[in-house]
Amino acid sequence: RQAKRELAQYFRGKRKRFAVRLAPQGTPFQRSIWKAIAAVGFGSTIPYAELARRAGHAGSARAAGAATGRNPIGIIVPCHRIVGSNGSLTGYAGGLHVKERLLRLEGALL
Q1: Predicted local distance difference test score (pLDDT) of residue 71
Q2: DSSP string, 14-79
Q3: For residue 44, what pLDDT band results from cuts at 50, 70 and 90?
Q4: 3 state SS of 6
Q5: CA of 82: how far to CAs of 4, 5, 10, 27, in Å?
Q6: d(CA 74, CA 69)
Q7: What pTM did the predictor assign?
Q8: pLDDT in tens, 60-69
Q9: Which of 25, 61, 86, 103 satisfies CB 3.0 to 4.6 Å to 48 for a cystine?
Q10: Residues annotated as part of the active site
């Protein structure tokens, strides 16, 4: 119920950070990447290389990308905020059109 309420608030523009407690299942590496993703602020983007660095795995941008793609809790763990090294909108499980809409909702794209 809390997740549903928070998601509704997010889509209405009333929530910028999720408080619901979740425990996604994954490898220690994946969980470290997901934790770093969760720390990327509303309306911000970072490239995969920076994500890997923030997670303590500098030089592992491709592995960070693979872990991002296995994120089981999209939006709440906002993997749409992770972009290519040149700022391009690269892969997103929900489709690039959804990634673009989420980033526009947050004001990260004009």
Answers
A1: 94
A2: --SS----------HHHHHHHHHHHTSPTT--EEHHHHHHHTT-TT-HHHHHHHHHT-SSTTTS-G
A3: very high
A4: helix
A5: 23, 25, 18, 20
A6: 9
A7: 0.93
A8: 999 999 999 9
A9: 61
A10: 79
